Amino acid sequence: MPTFCAPDGTQLAYRVIGEGDPVVCVPGGPADSAYLGDLGGLAAHRRLILLDLRGTGRSAVPEDTSSYRCDRLVGDVEALRDHLGLSGMDLLGHSAGANIATQYAARHPERTGKLVLVGPGTRAVGVGITGEMRREVALLRKDEPWFPAAFAALQAITEGTGSDWEAVAPFFWGRWDATARERHAAARPGNQDAVALFGAEGAFDPQGTRTALAACASPVLLLTGEFDVNSPPASAAEFAGVFPDATLVVQPGAGHCPWIDDAPRFVATTTDFLGG
Fold first, then answer.
1. pTM of the full predicted structure?
2. Which 3-state string (H, E, C) describes 19-55?
3. I need a labelling partner for 130 at 20 to 30 A (CA). Which of 154, 171, 189, 236 fits?
C-alpha cells in the first residue's frame, strides 16, 4: 500500500484501484477507506485513489491529536495531490468526508476539478439537519419489521433523550439484510479520538466556506439516498444551493451507502457526471 508524508510528517496511506483518469476519494467516519470498496464498480471507469485518513487503516497516528480536526485534514488531501503529481483533481467525499472535500474546494478552487459529495455531511457550510428531517425520512420505512424499535430509538436521539445509534442502524441501509449488517460492522470507525476531535472548535467556518464556494467554478454532484437519515434529501438540496453549478440526485431505495444498495444506478450516475 503506497504512502506519502503529510505536512506535519505523519505517514499516510492510500489505495489505488482501477484505470483511467484519477478520482481522489475521501472516506467518512473518520475512518479508513476499506469500507468504500471499489465504490460499486466505479473503478471500472475511473482510477480511484482512496485515502486512509490519519490515524485510521494503514495511516499513522499523528503526534498532535488536534490534527484530527476537519480543517486540518484538508492539508492531507493537498499533500496527496502534490504526491501524485496532479495539477488538479476530481474529488469524491462520502459522509463526513464531504466536509473535508468541500473545504478543500473552498481553499483550492484552482486545483479542484469535478466534485462528488455522496451522503454528504453539511457542517462545513452550516446546513442544519433537524430531527424532523430525519424522522420524515425514517417514516418511509414504516412497513419494515424492524421499524418500531428503530424509530423509537431515532425519536429518542432526535429529542435529546437517547443516544443508541446502533439501534437506528437499519435506517442507514436500503435493505437491512445480512450484507448490510456485515458492511455496517465493517464501517464502524476504530479511532474514537479521530471521531471526537473531527469537529473540535475551529474545525468549521461555515460563512467563510460559503463565501469561497460562491466563486467556485467546479461542477458539483450531490448524491444522497432516498432513505438516508444521516444525510436527508432536504439537507442535500439546501447544500446544493451553496454552489453556483450543482446537481442534486436522490437515489431511489438507497441509504447512506448508495453504491451498495444499487451499484449499477450509483455508477451510472457518477460516471455520467464525472465522465470516463
1. 0.96
2. CCCEEEEECCCCCCHHHHCCHHHHHHCCEEEEECCCC
3. 189
Q: Give the separation between CA 93 and CA 229, rounded to whole angstroms.
A: 18
Structural domain containing residue 40? 3-129+190-274
Give the number of other CB atoms < 10 A from CB of residue 83.
Answer: 16
Residue 262's domain is classified under what CATH number? 3.40.50.1820
- Mean pLDDT calculated for residue range 103-117: 97
pLDDT band at 27 (very low <50, low <70, confident <90, very high): very high
For residue 276, what pLDDT is reported? 67
Amino acid letter, residue 82: D
